[in-house]
């Protein structure tokens, strides 16, 4: 690519008023962290954008990384030229020749420095005519151009912007507090984690495992899903909960049709204790209304009874097809459909209760020793830390 620098523009961050600086600083930190492997890239924060001087780094490698950072609305590639008409002409032609897939274009010029003697409309005509004369494949389309050449005349130099790339949108991760995600090996919960991270939440995940009924392959599946979620945020912690004793106690004590309800209530109790330990302000699940027996309103009402924390359900009104589509977009789908059982698929009753009653659920739990089972599970939590560069090494000795 011929470009000298990239410009990152904000979306919703621009509307944050007096809080804007806090969001921008967090976004700048995320960009610096993700681009740390490109030492020549020089990152400068401005009031309305972040500028990345490439200094020879490959924009083609940097752009896909930036497009996964939440808080970025779009990214423009650009060059800088001197503040004179001849330099501008050469600049727009240079970009027109570079963007070989474009067949139509328009010029959008504006003067930040009003002392520059040529007005915007005149610049549009001068520069557009020059491109038409010197780039045979290009024609003008002012309504739906393939390429908009934005020319911004500044006080010391002129920026000329080429192709604009779509960003991930949302808010920088970490600006909306920390959430504990109940992560399974299924399709839904990774998507819920992704959507919450996109809204600025810092995500930690809790996974319930039941060895020897669940295998190391099921565990690896969840670790691989965690890596995908981590790629959208910063450091990610995965908490592995020993759930075998609780699950066997539920199987042996609770009537079959209430086992799913009691198991979910047990998970919520354990997750609430873990959230308190790890500083999380809410729980989150991948539940979608009516999808399975534990996701009816009656079930969710009965399960929610055991926790005082907010329970966030980003997928609650989404169809399975829509959830699967997002899973494919974020590259978790193929991992989620690996055929390894997790604890949620063990001991499934033939006819689970779809309208469980709070009073009945509480009565069955009296025979379980709930407090002891919760304490045992929380005390046995093993935490894995997943970072951008150390993921493989961190897990090599744990599987």
The computed structural class is alpha/beta
Sheet with the most strands, sense and barrel status: 8 strands, mixed
Question: How many alpha or pi helices?
Answer: 14
Helicity level, as a percent range?
25-40%
- Overall strand count: 14
- Main-sheet strand order equals 2-3-1-4-8-7-5-6
Quick synopsis:
This protein is α/β, with parallel strands linked by helices. The chain has 14 helices and 14 strands.
Q: Can you put this structure into words, describing what you see?
A:
It is built from 14 helices and 14 strands. The protein has 399 residues and is an alpha/beta fold. The strands form two sheets. Strands 2-3-1-4-8-7-5-6 form an eight-stranded mixed beta sheet. The protein has a six-stranded mixed beta sheet with strand order 13-12-9-10-11-14, sandwiched between helices. Helix 3 (85-98) packs across helix 4 and helix 8 packs across helix 13 (370-379). Keywords: ATP-binding, Cytoplasm, Nucleotide-binding, RNA-binding, Thiamine biosynthesis, Transferase, tRNA-binding. Its EC number is 2.8.1.4. Residues 60-164 form the THUMP domain.
How is this fold's topology laid out?
Blueprint: E1 5-10, H1 20-34, E2 42-45, E3 49-53, H2 59-66, E4 72-81, H3 85-98, E5 104-111, H4 120-134, E6 139-140, E7 147-153, E8 158-166, E9 178-182, H5 188-198, E10 202-209, H6 216-230, E11 236-242, H7 244-253, H8 259-278, E12 282-284, H9 297-304, E13 311-312, H10 320-329, H11 333-336, H12 358-365, H13 370-379, E14 382-386, H14 391-396
Parallel strand pairs: 5-6, 5-7, 9-10, 9-12, 10-11, 12-13
Antiparallel strand pairs: 1-3, 1-4, 2-3, 4-8, 7-8, 11-14
Helix pairs in contact: 3-4, 5-6, 7-8, 8-9, 8-13
